Amino acid sequence: MKDITIKELLTLKQPIIIDIRSPVEFKDGAIPGAINIPLFSDEERQEIGTIYKREGPANAKWRAMEVVSPKIPLLLKTLKVASSKGSELIIHCWRGGMRSKAVVTFLEFAGIYASRLEGGYKAYRQYILAEIPSMFPEKAVVLHGLTGVGKTEVLKYLKEMGYPTLDLEEMAGHRGSIFGTIGLEDGHNQKMFDSLLFQGLKELQDSPYFLMEAESKRIGKAVQPEELLNRKMQGLNIHLHTPVEQRIKHLVSEYVLPYENEPWYYEKISDGIEKVLRWVKNEEIKKMLNETLVDRNYREMIRILLENYYDPRYNYKRQEYEGGFIEIFADDPKTAAEKIAVELNNLAFYREKALGNKF
């Protein structure tokens, strides 16, 4: 049986990572790209854990074999299909213990070669948390702009154009606002965010800078590391400007049109408006928002929210940043990305010719 370390795993090109933990463990946090083929169901894992605590390890192992034995043929067949893709097969559980050892042993008897991840998912998580603080490029280029200017879309265009980006909202599974999970389920927890951040930073290892949005410290359920927040506050600031009608149109297309006929949508919007109303002091504004909610007039609701809630809060937050802002005016995200690319190219030329390796 061959064990493979986290460092060795991360050097492999497209390994097939099989996570044999129970579904609830996998959902709580996983290595990006891993396939969950659970050895035990959530209920079976809980039962075996209870036996371990009450009756000891011997009885727990016996019960585990009783549970696993009928599954072995199907388990091996599933893993054989996965291994047929040609890449190296890696098996892991929580700590690289009995579960992964047993599966790798079964595979060996069946003539299928696989490696066991040393330390399992626990070792992977410890490793990435230790590595992340030192992985950030030296400088951040921070995209600012009022709600609805399309910062995320601009970031995606810039990535397609070959510029180094970190899409923190995608990593958090959340758009960073009260209505940020509409159409995105419940968002990612901290473990998944950290894993995706580590993966994103690996792609930026040779870059002197990266682009990001001016996100708050918390994005949904996830919290950014202090090193990233420091880069943001000391970064080069770019402020995007788009006409308010275009912003409303963009928000309607993103938050309303795809979902407004879904049975859960009205309740989700109602919950969001209830949270907003806690911060709104003007009684007339509260009344108008409630009316748009009752009438399901989401377009007008968005206009009121922009003018009376989001824009004032954003203008206040901009004051937290030191240094000047490069102002970009555009009617759509693609044009904004192209204008930003011009600014970035000018900055790169200036850095190389005038400042050597300084940003």
Mean pLDDT value: 91
What general outline do the C-alpha atoms trace?
globular
Strand order of the largest sheet: 1-5-4-2-3
Q: Roughly what percent helix? A: 40-55%
Overall number of strands: 11
Largest sheet: 5 strands, parallel
Strand composition percent: 5-15%
Supply Rg: 25 Å
Elements, N to C (H/E): EHEHEHHHEHEHEHHHEEEHEHHHHEH
Q: Which residues form runs of ≥5 with pLDDT under 50?
A: 352-359
User: Which structural class do you get from the secondary structure elements?
Assistant: alpha/beta
What is the CA-CA span between the terminal residues? 49 Å
Subunit arrangement of the protein: single chain
By DSSP (H or I, 4+ residues per run), the number of helices equals: 16
GO molecular function, one term: transferase activity
EC number: 2.9.1.-
Keywords: Selenium, Transferase
Enzyme class: transferase
Question: Explain this structure to me?
Answer:
By secondary structure, the chain is α/β, with parallel strands linked by helices. The chain has 16 helices and eleven strands. Strands 1-5-4-2-3 form a five-stranded parallel sheet. Strand 2, helix 2 and strand 3 form a beta-alpha-beta unit. Helix 7 packs across helix 10. The longest helix is centred in the last third of the chain and has 22 residues. The protein is globular. The C terminus is likely disordered.
List keywords for this structure.
about 350 residues; alpha/beta; five-stranded parallel beta sheet; four-stranded parallel beta sheet; 16 helices; 11 strands; about 55% helix; about 10% strand; disordered C terminus
